[in-house]
Each structure stands twice: as C-alpha cells, then as structure tokens.
Amino acid sequence: DWNRLVAKLTGALRALEPGRTIVIGSNMWQRPETFEQLVVPDDPLIILSFHFYEPFMFTHYDTGWNFMKDYEGDVRYPGVILDEDAFRALPGKLKPHLGRFVGQDYDRAVLEAMLEQPLRKARELGLPLYCGEFGVYESAPPADRLRWYRDVLSIFEEHDVSWANWNYKSDQFGIFGNDGEPVQAMLEALELEPSGTVR
After folding, report:
1. Which residue among 115, 118, 145, 181 is least packed, with the fewest CB closer than 10 Å?
2. What is the pLDDT of residue 192?
3. What count of other Cβ atoms lies within 10 Å of the Cβ of residue 75?
C-alpha cells in the first residue's frame, strides 16, 4: 500500500511540477530496516529519507511516552546495554519490548551495519540520502550520549548523508531548550557554534 501511494503521489506531483525535488522514505517511521521493501520511482529528483534512533533502549532512555518509562536499569553506549541477568530481573511486561537488546554489543560498526539498507539503496539508485530524524533523549548518560552522536555523525559524513537532529527546540532532544538558550552538550555533540551554525 505504501509503495502504491508513493508511486501515485510522485506521478501526481511530477505532472504538476517536473522540477520539484521529492523526499520519500520507507513505511513504518522510515526505519532503516524497512528500506528493502521500499519501491522507489524511477526519477532523478528524489531524495531518500530515513530516521535513526538505535539502539532505541539507549536513545529513548527514561522517556515517558513508551515502554522505556517502566525501565529502571542503566543504559550505556558503546557496549552491551542489557545482559542476561538484568533481562531476567525485568518485570514481565518489559521483556517483549527489550528482548532484542539482550547481549547486543553496540558500537560505531554495529550502527553503520544497521544503516546498510538505506545506504545501499541510495548507492544503487544514485540518489542523495537524508536522515530526517535522529537523536538521543536528554536522560541518557551525557558522555555516552556524546559518543553516540559522534559515531552517528561520523557515519553520516563518511557516506555523504545529510541530516536533521530531532529536534531543533525542546528540553528533551533539542539543540536549543524551550527557553531559546542553546543546550551546550548538544552544540558539542553536533559540532555547532552557539548560534546553531555548523563549525
């Protein structure tokens, strides 16, 4: 259904605006692992877009709107976030959500491998690639958060991926807080000047 919608929408837009650049991504929140199923129209004016929040258990640590609100353990990056003993001690309601993280050792190489589907599709089709959302919630350990950002940004730079942090202004993920003041840790992580411009 998603691929049919993409094809129909692209055709309709192209009939009206032949020179318009169209940004498309895969279904299911544009997750990288769904890119194999994306059928991209044969059109040179397309930018492929994906979102990246892995490992979710780390990037959404202590968020109040999903299952991570009930997790009371620690998280880290890089390394193993959840070992077998910690998993066994979890409440039963968390186990279906967190089982995929047990024993997984996350580092830059693992993150890069997780991005292989969109990277490969962009290479094969000769299209630009854009990460329209990525980020780490403010509750993650600050030094680990900084390491995650540096690893992800180095992957983007190596593969010529444009990006937009989620999000620009908020107290949870933002480059600037709700008060409009820059979040120093985010400026450092994203290598931005105090004005928000790239160094």
Report:
1. 181
2. 78
3. 23
Q: Are 78 and 149 in contact (CB under 8 A)?
A: no
Q: What phi, psi does 103 have (nearest 5°)?
A: 75, 0
Pick from 73-77, 92-96, 123-127, 193-197: least confident? 193-197
State pLDDT tens for residues 126-179: 999 999 999 999 999 999 999 999 999 999 999 999 999 999 999 899 999 999
Answer yes or no: are the C-beta atoms of 119 and 38 closer than 8 Å. Answer: no
Radius of gyration of the chain (CA): 18
pLDDT of residue 115: 98
Residue 187 structure tokens: 């400026």
**What span, in angstroms and rounded, lies between the C-alpha atoms of 130 and 101?**
26
**Nearest-angstrom CA–CA distance, 68 and 61:** 6
Chain position carrying tokens 């290598």: 191
Residue type, 105: D
Put residue 31 in one of left, alpha, beta given phi > 0 → left and psi -120 to 50 → alpha: beta
Nearest to 163 by CA among 32, 50, 34: 50
The DSSP secondary-structure symbol of 149 reads H
